[in-house]
Design goal:
By secondary structure, the protein is α+β, with helices and mostly antiparallel strands. The protein folds into 3 domains: 211 residues, Beta-Lactamase (2-Layer Sandwich), CATH 3.30.450; 161 residues, 2-Layer Sandwich (Alpha-Beta Plaits); 256 residues, EAL domain (TIM Barrel). The protein has an 8-stranded mixed beta barrel with strand order 17-18-20-21-22-23-24-25, surrounded by 5 helices. A hairpin with a 2-residue loop joins strand 13 and strand 14. Helix 16 packs across helix 17 and helix 18 runs parallel beside helix 20.
Length: 719
């Protein structure tokens, strides 16, 4: 025992002497150096805040719409609130904003996030007037040089005492971004913004720069401080804080040194405990591996859902104490296609590569986790600005758009991203994840391969979707509120040749809901199947009244993926007694791209049963000649977006000519949607369009009004 204890005691004493010497030399001068560094950071933070206020203003004042709105009389106060007033408080944390006309009279005022009295400007004016004179003189000279190399427009700013508080006071002119709105030099409206330095700015110092306990003093502080100077260089106050002293912190953590000493003693005793120590190390290694596997994804090595939830809980706890956090949920688009085409090993390789690319875009303090399958999450432990998040999301999208090399093949995928911030959207993990998932769903619903920030309207939309789903189930059971309207299609001479059946649904709770809102809900809930069959039955019944007109019916991609769909369509047509040749089924390009073999077989059977197939919204998707030939459609319908842009862009006219030429070359009928003017009709007729549809001829009307339209159409053509 002595042979062990004596050497151990000597080692502990020697270690204590060494630690004392190291501690003395390491802490000498470190506190002063740390304080000087914080002074430099605080000085930079104040300067950055002044520039940030000016750039915040410039984002909304260097804008044609802003010029129009401030000129409008009376002012559209709602628009001003959302773009030049209350929005500056809710988004940029500005405390007061004012709009001044050409005579420097206030025409709008906002304080603390609420619209205020114009008289409130009187307490800001004494400090603002010198800046107004300086800026107005520059504008009268026609001098629009930016206030700094970080800005695009002129301006004037200072730090001043406003209402007894030190504040950043900044002025920006409301000017045209494009230069297309004439403004007499010096007549520009002025935007005045005030941000108090003893408000939210102090919290940002703690979060962004680690300067805790900052406060404003009239006189220099005994602790660390920096002077606040106005535009003339005069000191108007001091920003003070209690500096962090690392030397003192080290001295207070001697426990760490003692632990190191114990570790050294353990090393000296290792030769006595060799076999036992090796066994213990093996046990600890096994425990560490088990713990790693419990909290990390085995495929990518990233944190799994359990570890991510724990880190998110800690971040939200900080957010509740005044901090913030940003959460992103990501879901790969078209990943199933990779698995189906190249196998699950290729899918695993793509997941690993995607995780690697994501990791390369983030900072060490950020957390990226794989929640399962092709779903990932990113946690930014700060309340990042909107521009910062947008840039990160764009970098993620750019990284994903690069091809993935998997098992000797190239695979292409996209990613949808939902974004939510705490505490702005809440500070409870389950609620925050739910809202991030809602934002992700919104990104997928709006075309995928994009990102969306959560907002309250999305939550309301989800609740509305639930109510709509319940009401739609009831309507399909009773038929209440459901109806079909019909929009005429005319030939090149203007004669009515067919109609398109369009669903209309009027509810008790929500009034008339547009198909663009109802159809996606029906597709997701499976209600599109009974709804589509109801539409087909109604259209077939009405079509028998117009034996010389065809009736076009829209089909959903979800219907095509439903087993037995083609059999049900043919059975409904047969039971209705309508001639199959009188029916035209409209499908979108997305139907042709997905489930290639299933779709081709289904379309072939439908055409074999006498029905015609039209490709809707042509030109907005892949627009491939190869699948037009492969799927053998009868008609293509040029999307209304190209028709609406006729006369405005050269591309639209060229595209329409190209589509018409392509369609005629392979024997297809070409229809133009969205025709609203005689000029559009004449152009499309000259271009060779076979049929046209749009408000120029008629809006969708109930079936009983079609005969009136036919009579009027015949009379007009005869005249």
């Amino acid at each position: 025992m002595k042979a062990v204890l004596l050497p151990s005691a000597g080692a502990v004493l020697l270690l204590a002497l060494m630690v004392g010497a190291v501690l003395h030399f390491a802490t000498a001068g470190s506190d002063d150096a740390a304080e000087q560094r914080q002074v430099r950071i605080a000085t930079m933070a104040v300067a950055s805040a002044v520039v940030a206020v000016r750039k915040d203003q410039e984002a909304s004042t260097y804008w044609d719409d802003a010029v129009r709105q401030v000129r409008h009389k009376p002012l559209d106060l709602g628009w001003i609130d959302q773009n030049l007033g209350i929005w500056f408080h809710s988004y940029y944390k500005h405390d007061e904003t004012y709009l001044l006309d050409a005579g420097e009279h206030p025409i709008y005022a906002m304080r603390n996030g609420r619209r205020a009295s114009l008289a409130d400007f009187a307490q800001v004016a004494p400090r603002a007037v010198p800046l107004i004179h300086t800026l107005r003189a520059q504008l009268r000279r026609g001098d629009l040089r930016p206030a700094s190399d970080q800005e695009q427009t002129p301006g004037a700013s200072t730090i001043a005492i406003v209402r007894g508080h030190p504040a950043i006071l900044s002025l920006k002119p409301v000017i045209s971004e494009t230069g297309k709105l004439p403004q007499a030099a010096g007549s520009e409206h002025l935007h005045v913004s005030v941000r108090y330095l003893d408000g939210s700015f102090l919290g940002e110092l703690a979060v962004r720069y680690g300067i805790e306990g900052a406060h404003i003093l009239a006189l220099p502080a005994t602790s660390a401080s920096v002077p606040l100077r106005n535009a003339q260089g005069a000191v108007i106050g001091y920003l003070a804080w209690h500096p962090f002293r690392p030397g003192l912190a080290v001295a207070q953590h001697m426990t760490t040194v003692l632990l190191l000493a114990l570790a050294l003693v353990g090393a000296m005793l290792a030769w006595l405990l060799g076999r036992n120590l090796r066994a213990r190390l093996q046990l600890e290694t096994s425990r560490a591996q088990a713990q790693h596997l419990a909290f990390h994804d085995p495929l990518t090595g990233l944190p799994n859902r359990t570890l991510f939830n724990d880190r998110l809980d800690h971040a939200l706890a900080r957010a509740r104490r005044g901090g913030g956090a940003t959460l992103l949920l990501l879901d790969l688009d078209r990943f199933k296609h990779v698995n189906d085409s190249f196998g699950h090993q290729a899918g695993d390789a793509l997941i690993r590569e995607f995780a690697s690319r994501l990791s390369g875009l983030l900072r060490e303090e950020d957390t990226i986790a794989r929640l399962g399958g092709d779903e990932f999450a990113i946690l930014l432990p700060t309340l990042a600005g909107g521009d910062t998040i947008d840039r990160l999301c764009q970098r993620i999208l750019n990284a994903v758009h690069l091809p993935f090399e998997v098992l000797g093949n190239q695979a292409f995928v996209g990613v949808s991203i939902g974004i939510v911030q705490a505490p702005l959207a809440g500070s409870e993990r389950i609620d925050l994840l739910r809202k991030a998932d809602i934002a992700l769903y919104s990104a997928k619903a709006e075309g995928r391969d994009c990102y969306r920030h959560f907002n309250a309207s999305m939550d309301a939309t989800v609740q509305l979707r639930g109510a709509v789903e319940e009401d739609l189930r009831s309507a399909l059971a009773t038929g209440d509120g459901l109806a079909l309207h019909y929009q005429p299609l005319v030939d090149a001479e203007g004669a009515m040749v067919g109609v398109e059946a369009l669903m209309r649904w009027t509810t008790t709770a929500h009034g008339q809901l547009p198909p663009a809102q109802v159809i996606p809900i029906a597709e997701e809930t499976g209600l599109i199947i009974p709804l589509g069959e109801w539409v087909l039955r109604e259209a077939c019944t009405v079509a028998r009244r117009w034996p010389d007109l065809f009736v076009a019916i829209n089909l959903s991609p979800v219907q095509f993926r439903t087993p037995g769909f083609v059999d049900r369509v043919l059975d409904i047509v047969r039971c209705s007694g309508v001639r199959p040749e009188q029916l035209e089924l409209e499908v979108t390009e997305g139907v042709l791209i997905d489930d290639d073999d299933l779709v081709r077989a289904g379309l072939s059977r439908l055409r074999g049963g006498g029905l015609r197939i039209a490709l809707d919204d042509f030109g907005t998707g892949y627009s491939s000649l190869s699948y037009l030939r492969k799927f053998e459609v009868d008609k293509i319908k040029i999307d209304r977006s190209f028709i609406q842009h006729l006369g405005h862009t050269v591309d639209s006219a060229a595209i329409i000519h190209a589509v018409v030429t392509l369609g005629h070359a392979i024997g297809l009928t070409v229809t133009a949607e969205g025709v609203e003017t005689r000029e559009q009709q004449r152009f499309l007729t000259q271009a060779g369009c076979n049929q046209m549809q749009g408000y120029l001829f008629s809006q969708p009307v109930p079936a009983d009004e079609i005969e009136k339209l036919r009579t009027a159409n015949a009379a007009l053509r005869a005249a």
